[in-house]
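Example (one chain per record):
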Amino acid sequence: MSVGPRALLCWRSPFVNLSFAKNNAPNRNAQYDTGAATALLSVEATAHGLAVHQMAGFDPEKARQVFGIPAGREAIAAIAIGYPGDPASLPQPLKDREMAPRIRKPDCEFVMAGHWGHTAPFATK
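Predicted structure:
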């Protein structure tokens, strides 16, 4: 692998076939499968010291053009994979964001049981 100015991040855009080749029926599991594959790719990349940043906010049509994604396939996510850089090298607004504590939504806001909106008893508040 050559190292150049773009070596900091390696961009990947997972794309899936949204129908099955055998019967051309819609593949309703395509997004789930992509998420599962991305999760495992993230675990493996992290085990090798790489940072992974998953994104939904990208331009699918631009991805089609840049990566030559054929008709019948759809880009549904983008992933940046690379070695972590030095936050001190970032402009101040980005450095502040990078160094800020990570805040996660509490489980009780999205883990439900029985009916929608009913927090699962095992979800902590």
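Caption: The chain is about 25% helix and 15% strand.
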